[in-house]
């Protein structure tokens, strides 16, 4: 090969090498400026982002539900607290109404709901059960003497259910069937206590506010509910006023003067516990709220 040919070959080889180096440098430069990934890697990356988004959304929903639950719980607790607060507030009014023979219009309007719940939610029956249990506990630990002079006085009207021996306002407020159911259960508790006292050989004297002319009907009704074998039944004399507040105290004084020892008095009405000679124990049976000043005792029906 001539010298000229050799020189041309060297120049061509140098250009090829320079081109190759430039290409490598350009490729390297491109790799530094961008990131390339396969379709599989992209799919995995996007799936990860979706999973994170779903997890964050689920966490947000869970937090929202928890907050709502806490809010509802706090609201329920607050309402329960308010109901309890109202109940005791109205019970205080009820106590003073009984002590002072106040009319039902003495009560705040807020006590209407408390009166309804007291019966419909069973608190009245629970109070009856507790009171009767206290009386039974007392009589299980004491015994009458054999001379027959230790007596127990019981309110005969507690054995009798009458629509007219309660506040008319109460009947407008609560469900009538619920009221009568409560009256029947009350009578059941009173009869239960009566029968236990009989089994423990206590002489029982019943006192009723009903007039003497209803004696036969009263005796018939007492027998129909299982109340028999009492020692005496004291009725209101025809010349006594219908709502004589001293009816019970007058007969208690008379019994004591006759030599009887009053061991206990059992009644749901406050007038029975007023005055002298009340005896060793008083067992006040609970009454529905607003059932205080009884009016218009029926003398011819609804015994």
Structure description:
This protein is α/β, with parallel strands linked by helices and 303 residues long. The protein has a domain at 119-284: Rossmann fold (3-Layer(aba) Sandwich), CATH 3.40.50. Helices cover 56% and strands 10% of the residues. The protein has eight helices and five strands; from the N terminus they run ααααβααβαβαββ. The protein has helices at 3-33, 39-100, 111-120, 123-139, 168-173, 176-199, 215-224, 247-257; strands at residues 150-155, 204-211, 232-236, 261-267, 281-284. A five-stranded parallel beta sheet has the order 3-2-1-4-5, sandwiched between helices.
Q: Which key terms come to mind for this protein?
A:
Acid_phosphat_B-like; Rossmann fold; 303 residues; disordered C terminus; five-stranded parallel beta sheet; transmembrane helix; HAD_sf; alpha/beta; transmembrane; 8 helices
Radius of gyration: 45 Å
Uncertain spans, ≥5 residues at pLDDT below 50? 17-32, 74-81, 163-169, 292-303
> What's the CATH H-level homologous superfamily of one domain?
HAD superfamily/HAD-like
Instruction: Please state roughly what percent of the residues sit in beta strands, choosing from under 5%, 5-15%, 15-25%, 25-35%, 35-45% or over 45%.
Output: 5-15%
Number of strands: 5
What structural class do helix, strand and pairing data support? alpha/beta
User: Considering DSSP H and I runs of 4 or more, what fraction of the residues is helical?
Assistant: 55-70%
Keywords: Membrane, Transmembrane, Transmembrane helix
Pfam families: Acid_phosphat_B (PF03767)
InterPro entries: Acid_phosphat_B-like (IPR005519), HAD_sf (IPR023214)
